[in-house]
Amino acid sequence: MVDTTPLTRAVEHFADRLRAAPQSRLQRGAAAEALELARELARRAQALEEPGVEPREMPDAGMFAAADQITVAGHDLAVVIPADADVEEAVRLVEEAQKRAGV
Question: What's the superkingdom here (predicted)?
Answer without folding.
Answer: Bacteria
